[in-house]
Amino acid sequence: MENSSVVQFEMKNGTVDLTLNFYRLNQLRAKHKEEYKRYQKINSEGVKTDLDAVDVIYVAYLCANLEKMPDVMSYEEFLMNVKESRARIWQVYGALNTDPKN
Predict the structure, then answer these.
(1) Domain ranges in the chain?
(2) Of 77, 91, 94, 90, the residue nearest 12 (C-alpha)
(3) The three-state (H, E, C) secondary structure of 36-71, written as one string
(4) Mind listing the pLDDT tens digit for each residue in 41-59?
């Protein structure tokens, strides 16, 4: 995977990779329209709540794990495994929306 755009996210059940790489977002849009629509709606309207940020992180999880689909966590399973740290959620959201150094 493209290392410069990957963010590590520690969850209750282990660490997962996240990315919002444009190529992978395009693949998600083509193959998983509902998840992409949710992401696009949040992006266009702005992130307003903690759960909006988690939704974006979930899409980044899906993008990083496209090759593993359908053997990835469902949205509900993902929510159950997110650690209860709002500060970390916003930190990871920020990291996903910052230009990579490379």
Answers:
(1) 3-96
(2) 77
(3) HHHHHHHHHHCCCCHHHHHHHHHHHHHHHCHHHCCC
(4) 999 999 999 999 999 999 9
